[in-house]
TrEMBL record:
Gene Ontology cellular component list: cytoplasm
Lineage: Eukaryota, Metazoa, Chordata, Craniata, Vertebrata
Origin superkingdom: Eukaryota
Domain GTP cyclohydrolase I: 108-283
Enzyme class: hydrolase
One GO-annotated biological process of the protein: tetrahydrobiopterin biosynthetic process
Family, per entry: Belongs to the GTP cyclohydrolase I family.
Protein name: GTP cyclohydrolase 1
One of the record's GO molecular function terms: GTP cyclohydrolase I activity
Gene: gch2
Pathway(s): Cofactor biosynthesis; 7,8-dihydroneopterin triphosphate biosynthesis; 7,8-dihydroneopterin triphosphate from GTP: step 1/1
Entry keyword set: GTP-binding, Hydrolase, Nucleotide-binding, Tetrahydrobiopterin biosynthesis
Amino acid sequence: MPLSLNHTSKQVSPSLSLLLLPSCQKSPPKPISTCTTLLVLSSSLLLCTIQCSPWLTQAESKRALTMSTKVGDIVEEFHTDNKMSTVNNHHETSRKELEDASRLPALETAYTDILRHLGEDTDREGLLRTPLRAAKAIQFLTKGYHETIDDILNNAIFDEDHDEMVIVKDIDMFSLCEHHMVPFFGKVHIGYIPNKKVVGLSKLARIVEIFSRRLQVQERLTKQIAVGISEALQPKGVAVVIEAAHMCMVMRGVQKMNSRTVTSAMLGVYLEDPKTREEFLYLSRRT
């Protein structure tokens, strides 16, 4: 028998009314995702069908009730997992903040000593808070020491039947040369060939951030990015090219304003197959 709209006008049990119309809550409900909303609605409609459909046989009612229970379990598990993930991320962030705060006074003192040894008056107005600002700045510029790829991927790896090249190019990169602690900066081009798994594109830029926010040399930075992506995704191949300007060659030393350093790291098929490597290099150079 087809479902009639007249059946929906029948009285619904008080417990179902509370489920469908939670207006009696003392505080507004927290926002939930579209996926969760659909699951809740599906569960509600199943319950409504069971209680408002006298033509259902006992076996059909039992099956519908079982389905509704399973949907409810899925919703509860979804919220539990999300809550645990949020709590873990909060604890991790709090731990890093506490570590930074504990190291700040020593860094501030060190910068004060550096300024004094340079012959500066650290009590003059322009320098009163400079040691503190410099300490906070160096913590930010080296925050990659406290981050891992697992921290930033956050389950953003997806099963996908795609086996063609994926390239994200012109990723801005800033780092500090470990020899003179002056900046080098430029662009990073990343390519990989998936092996049934892809990663959120923004995560590639975040991986660049993890390794570039440390004291670095460009050669090691290039390799670390490639190996990090390879270990996380297990792709068929990874290619990374970095082109950067080094202030240790521009501001001091040889003072060559227009010099650029290019480094590359090729893993998997990019290393083994010249045509695949050539395709990546060609596409990454295109404007």
